[in-house]
Design goal:
This protein is an alpha/beta fold. The protein folds into two domains: 315 residues, TIM Barrel (Alpha-Beta Barrel), CATH 3.20.20; 56 residues, no CATH class. The protein is 33% helix and 16% strand. The protein contains 14 helices and 14 strands. The strands form four sheets. An eight-stranded parallel β-barrel has the order 1-2-7-8-9-10-11-12, surrounded by six helices. It has a two-stranded parallel sheet with strand order 3-5. Helix 6 links the parallel strand 7 and strand 8. Helix 6 runs parallel beside helix 8, helix 8 runs parallel beside helix 9 and helix 13 packs across helix 14. The chain is globular and about 60 Å long. The protein starts with 10 loop residues before the first helix and ends with a strand. The C terminus is likely disordered. The chain binds flavin mononucleotide. The site of flavin mononucleotide has 22 residues, from strand 2 and helix 12. This is DUS-like FMN-binding domain-containing protein.
Length: 391
Amino acid sequence: MSIHSDPDASESQLYSDLPAPLHLPPSELLEHYEPNVLAPLVRCSKLPFRHLTSLYETHITHTPMMLAEEFSRAQIARVSDFSTSSEERGVYWMTPSSGSSSKGNGKGKEAVRVNHPDDDCSSHSADELITYYRPPSNTKDRLPPSPTAPNRDSVLVRGNLIAQFASPNAKSLADAAELISPYVDGIDLNCGCPQRWAYNEGIGCALLRKPELVRDMVRGVRQRMGWGWSVSIKIRIDPDQKQTETLIRNALSAGISYLSIHGRTRHQPSTDPVNLEGIKFAVETVKGEVPCTGNGDIWSYEDVVTMREKTGVKGVMAARGLLANPALFCNYPSTPSHAVSQFISLSTSYGLIFPFSTAAIDWLESRGLDWRKDRSTIWDARRGRGVLSTV
Ligand SMILES: Cc1cc2nc3c(=O)[nH]c(=O)nc-3n(C[C@H](O)[C@H](O)[C@H](O)COP(=O)(O)O)c2cc1C
């Protein structure tokens, strides 16, 4: 009798014969598996929130935008801007998207990892650069949501973590990429931050109309890190489509691994509806040379489906939708209580995100739910199971 049909099998027995998850670079994950993506979010997409969303079928997560110049120059910036853990990436059953010829054999041209801290925990000194959490030595790896594959084509895949930087020059970006490379699966260049201070500094959306500079920055990272390293850009659409076209052609010529497209212009507030036609235009400009991710107004699972159908993107990126409901990609219509509880558990273990974490505690207490009792540690938060107790 298979262990999976034995009603008395323990949880550890059920999970005992899992294959090792594939470690695919983001471009392959996007090309073949249609992943769900957490957008970069200043102040919000920090470690506890990234780990939380990874428990609910968010396969690629982004750090908040960090300033490459500060990050590469100052230890204090590295420590305050970035922390990660060996557990923050999830493990998922994923099925190759239709039309994909690959089941992700892990032998793709980009399957390169540079000096990951877990390769040799005893000898590296990289922890001096950033805060890196490791689980107790007796803890197992992250687990998928279920011990068995949902269908015959499903394979076990590990999620990706991308660091997003803002930079006005190629050297700072390459320096920052090199420093952070042991901890992430790639870097992303912010070409969309619309704030005036950013524009005046020549970063964020100021880059939307500086295609040669974007090209040089991507090239700079490529030259420093090699072709195996993932470098992407996140853009906004331009009211003048020719500008979008020029930007994309330059970025492609420099060798971006994938493209993320926010379907609003620099001057549009987020209250304006996302322009799916604008995203589709950008995807068509790419002509399939690299996979694309679409971003804007993803509030429900239906929005995820519509984004793919109407624009041709492979990945779907949510920002405010995941802040409102971190379990959005698992098709929960609103935030389940266990997500709130998990978030408190994660943020008390990793460090609070103010005022986010305190709001979550207030939310639970207002419903008479006791977050102090039966609280799991982060190292128990491996599959996103509920840990809530009601008083
Ligand atoms: C609080 C907040 C912080 C953000 N921080 C970043 C950032 O660091 N980098 C970035 O590229 N975009 C940032 N954005 C933009 C989002 O990534 C996303 O492009 C935008 O919110 C549109 O997606 P949505 O309609 O799903 O919210 C931020 C948005 C919000 C609401």
